[in-house]
Design brief:
With 477 residues, the chain is of the alpha/beta class. Helices cover 38% and strands 13% of the residues. The chain is globular.
């Protein structure tokens, strides 16, 4: 059996018993990346020398019975928007093609403190803006299940690396579904934690009130292991929650669900969802009921406003966050500019891709004088109504079950000609970010083309344990 076929939990047990070394695991993955990633293109930067050094250090600790954590010696990879001291962080953009941060993101530091071994940095949609990883400046990542199709986005490289057995686990970010949707497209487990559950410090911002860091894994239990390592309060992140971190793995074992109440929101089974996806998710609901959960339909009457509210809020915040990239402080600077105005204009025009520029323009318009009240203010008001609808639902239910996306992974180029059509593909996921909830994608079948389908579990803030309990019962891994 290929060592890459073992899960994180299995590798952890093997390392603890001395049945395998971190160096052996790391070399197997580095070899696979060299041989296979030339076609998949999940990596932007591979940190082979560092990985081998860290693996040797982990083996030394294991040999002295001084492992830092159950994850000590386990390799992983990062979406390339996490700052890593001494290793370039590009955000898949020409703007940051050669940027090497002087510090490391908190979530990454936590994994380093747990003894994890960094394999490299993963491809993504430029500045996390996209749903297919087609907007990357460097390459288009291919879906390992079918290489003619997209892996989803914006964390497409993170999903493809895990699904393609090019990393045991990865970290992504989710602003409107960017962990859950690519996880569904590639047939893996992806968690968007509660807003503030994991520090965002050092993760390059797209939309600060929506972004959240989360794990992408092959199993529910692996996901719980990683979240246990990266969650917790961080004084460097003002939005970080002070609540203690439970052992999430205690909730991630398959079992009965007596007492759990599961809602099926009518508005998330919208017109336009593939009948195959709808049938797969409803079959997942039947599976939860068979395991003892009480499953009922429910309504989120104002969630229909989530998609326009999300794109107004996220674009407005993006236009503000990306204002720092002007050719002066850091990042790409246009050559031979004859004035500061020309430097600003050319650096941003040449350094950003078309999707990033589109969202900057949209956000700047929404915040401009005369339009702020009509767009941004109303979007924030809609956000409050959506949160109220979820509060009402969670007064009745422990979690909600819905599709992750209305369609499965599409072929390259099928959606890129019409950005509004691609934006609409986020209809099932964006409300979770707008309301600050936690959500998880779990595989629940395949379509007629053999492409994975994901079921989305949603819970109120700080109820990740509920998601793991339901996810483990549903997926069994």
């Amino acid at each position: 059996m290929d060592i890459r076929d073992f899960t994180v939990a299995e590798l952890s047990k093997m390392l603890a018993k001395g049945a395998v070394s971190s160096a052996e695991i790391t070399k197997a993955y580095l070899s696979a990346i060299e041989k296979e990633d030339g076609e998949i293109r999940s990596y932007i930067t591979v940190t082979a020398d560092r990985a081998l050094k860290d693996a040797a250090a982990a083996d030394g600790r294991r040999g002295k019975n001084a492992a830092l954590s159950p994850l000590d010696g386990i390799p992983y990879a990062l979406k390339d928007l996490f700052c890593t001291e001494g290793i370039r962080t590009t955000c898949a953009s020409k703007m940051l093609e050669n940027f090497v941060p002087p510090y490391t993101a908190t979530a990454v530091k936590k994994l380093e403190g747990a003894g994890c071994v960094l394999l490299g940095k993963l491809n993504m949609d430029e500045f996390a803006m996209g749903s297919s990883t087609e907007t990357s400046y460097f390459a288009k990542t291919r879906n390992p299940v079918n290489r003619e199709r997209v892996p989803g986005g914006s964390s497409g490289g993170s999903a493809a690396a895990v699904a393609g057995r090019l990393a045991p686990f990865s970290l992504g970010t989710d602003t409107g579904g960017s962990i859950r949707q690519p996880s569904a497209f590639c047939g893996i487990v992806g968690l968007k934690p509660t807003y503030g559950r994991v520090s965002r410090f050092g993760a390059v911002a797209f939309a600060s009130s929506l972004d959240q860091v989360g794990p992408m894994t092959r199993t529910v239990y692996d996901n719980a292991m990683v979240l246990s390592a990266i969650a917790g309060n961080d004084p460097l992140d003002a939005a970080s929650l002070p609540h203690p971190v439970p052992d999430y793995t205690a909730s991630a074992a398959p079992g009965r669900l007596e007492g759990m109440r599961v809602g099926l929101p009518d508005e998330l089974f919208v017109d336009g969802i593939s009948p195959t996806i709808k049938a797969a998710v409803l079959k997942a609901a039947e599976s939860l009921a068979e395991k003892g959960a009480a499953v009922e339909r429910c309504s989120l009457p104002r969630v229909e406003y989530a998609l326009p509210a999300y794109y107004i809020i996220s674009s407005a915040e993006a236009s503000s966050n990306l204002g720092r990239y002007n050719g002066v402080g850091f990042g790409y600077a246009a050559a031979d500019a004859e004035s500061i105005a020309e430097l600003y204009t050319r650096s941003r025009s040449e350094g950003f891709g078309w999707e990033v520029k589109r969202r900057i323009l949209l956000g700047t318009f929404a915040l401009s004088s005369g339009y702020y009240d009509a767009y941004y203010k109303r979007a924030q008001q809609a956000r409050t109504l959506i949160m109220q609808d979820y509060d009402a639902a969670f007064a009745r239910f422990d979690c909600l079950l819905a599709p992750v996306a209305p369609i499965t992974a599409w072929k390259f180029g099928e959606m890129s000609a019409d950005p509004l059509e691609m934006y609409a593909a986020d209809i099932c996921t964006v409300s979770v970010n707008v309301a600050g909830l936690c959500g998880m994608s779990v595989p629940c079948g395949t379509d007629e083309n053999g492409m994975p389908i994901g079921a989305q579990l949603i819970a109120k803030p700080l109820c990740e344990e509920t998601l793991y309990r339901a996810g483990a019962a549903l997926y069994g891994r």
